[in-house]
Amino acid sequence: MAVPEFIPNSGACLVSKNVVSGAGRVRWMVRENSQAPADNGWRIFSHIDTSDYLADASNLQILPFNDVCAIEPALIGIYDFPVGSDLQLVDEGAGIKIVDTASGREIPPENFYVPPSMRA
To answer: What is the DSSP letter of 106?
Structure first.
C-alpha cells in the first residue's frame, strides 16, 4: 500500500520495531541531532519498549518519517519541533494529547506543524 506524502522531504527516523509491527503503540518521541543527511533526528518508541529492548539495535529500524506518520498520524504535528524535544503521546480515552515529558505540560494545538497541503 502506498503511503501518502504527509510532509514533503521529511526524511527518515529511527523507530522501534514494536511500533512497525503493531505490537506497541507510539508513546515516546525524542529528537536528537541528525546522524546522516536523510536523518531528521526523530526517535520513535512504543509504550511496551523497555531499556533492555531498546539497547539491542536490532529492535530499531530506519523508516521514512511519512511511513511512521501513516502508523500514527499525531506525529505529523511534531515534525518541526526542535532537537532536544522529548515528548510523549498520551491517550487516556478522551483523545490523543502530546505532552512534554520533562514538564508534563500538554503541547497546545497551535504549536503543531501543519503540512503545506493542509494550510489555509
So the answer is: B
